[in-house]
Amino acid sequence: MLKTKELTKSFGKQTVLKGITEDIQKGEVVVIIGPSGSGKSTFLRCLNLLEEPTSGVITFEGIDITDSKTNINQLREKMGMVFQSFNLFPHMSIIKNLEIAPIKVKGMSEAEANQTALSLLEKVGLSDKAEAYPGNLSGGQQQRVAIARALAMQPEVMLFDEPTSALDPEMVGEVLKVMQDLAESGMTMVVVTHEMGFAKEVADRVLFMADGVIVEQGTPEEIFDHPQHERTQDFLNKIL
Ligand code: ADP
Ligand code: MG
Predict the structure, then answer these.
(1) Which amino acids bring their CB within 6 angstroms of ligand 1?
(2) 200 assigned to some structural domain
(3) Does any domain span residue 191?
(4) Which range marks the domain in which residue 98 is found?
(5) Quick one: which of 112, 175, 169, 187 has its CA closest to 140?
(6) What is the pLDDT of residues 75-88, one digit of tens each?
(7) How many domains does the chain have?
(8) What Pfam family is a match for this entry (predicted)?
(9) Residue whose CA is closest, atom 14 of ligand 1?
(10) Residues 151-172: what's their mean pLDDT?
(11) What is the pLDDT of residues 41-58, one digit of tens each?
């Protein structure tokens, strides 16, 4: 569904991605782990062209998205992204936050957008917060809204960049639960996270990234129980 071939990204003289060739299958949950500064966010941001690759090819559903003729906005509609910071629209109620893009961008009717929004709020356990404002919600609740808002566009892939890193510890579980439900519903997901429990439980495949390359990858068992590379072993020893 989503492929990269020899993907590189440089910022000035610094090469942050050094030739990444990957293939993400439809319905797959891929978790990316690795030390800070290794290029995980840059990789995710290249996938939906928030960063322009320096070289290499990215194809999404068989189409070369690095081609200058690609309609980036259309592409982004198919890829939901959730960041560490929730970035909800603070002056809009929760339900409005979910309705706005489907109406403005997809041309969905208000009634349909409202129906979709309500059913998504139910999915993330926040039906009672439809009329609340972001500022009145906890961090965990805001992040669940951010996930629902991304889903309101009916994306084909969801990209998550450390979605629980900014949360107080007691709120991490509720967000991971929503992500796990989403994974079980068959959504294709690429998740950068330090939550190794989630990676073990939910990932189909784990990629260990360091210094702009994917050092090794495999099933959660392979990576966590039998890491082959010293860099992977060192990293896991430090965090587990
Ligand atoms: P990670 O998410 O694994 O912590 P990042 O992808 O955020 O790593 O960053 C990888 C490297 O790229 C870091 O050295 C970072 O400073 C650099 N970098 C990321 N984004 C930019 C940018 N917009 N401009 C310059 N350097 C950047
Ligand atoms: Mg990052």
Answers:
(1) 11, 16, 34, 36-42
(2) no
(3) no
(4) 88-154
(5) 175
(6) 889 999 999 998 99
(7) 1
(8) ABC_tran
(9) 37
(10) 97
(11) 999 999 999 999 999 999
